[in-house]
Amino acid sequence: MHQGVGPHASVPMTQAQIHQENQRREMATQLAKLRSRKPTDKSLPDGVEEILVGDGDVAQAYKSLRDFERRLDATMTRKRLDIVDSVTRNTKVCCGALF
Questions:
Q1: How deeply is 23 buried, as exposed, middle or buried, from its count of CB atoms within 10 A (0-12, 13-18, 19+)?
Q2: What whole-number distance in Å separates Cα of residue 15 and Cα of residue 24?
Q3: In this structure, what are the phi and psi dihedrals at residue 50, rounded to the nearest 5 degrees?
Q4: What is the pLDDT of residues 34-85, one digit of tens each?
């Protein structure tokens, strides 16, 4: 039986391999950031209403939808924080009574 020799033996990496691995990791990190980035400006620029083809109420419907989404997000965040606060408060009361 060979000691220390096998398909999984640790072989030191060369400087070129280390550099290539670092570049690969950096590229993967940058790609992940690009995938996770969401558009920050979802508002319509001024004057778009006149340019839109078809029903002229599309821009107004989009703006009202964005307003509704903003209110819904605020409500969901508030409810989520209420739940976390309630669970935290109940855990402190429960654990305080046990000790």
A1: exposed
A2: 14
A3: -75, -25
A4: 777 666 666 666 776 677 666 667 777 888 888 999 999 999 999 999 999 9
Q: Can you tell me the distance from the alpha carbon of 97 to that of 61, in angstroms, rounded to the nearest whole number?
A: 54
44 within a domain of the structure (yes/no): no
How many domains does the chain divide into? 1
0.85 exceeded by pTM: no
3-state secondary structure of 58: helix
Residue 65, classed as helix, strand or coil, is helix
Amino acid (one-letter) located at 70: R
Residue 31 lies in a domain: no
Q: Is residue 20 part of a domain?
A: no
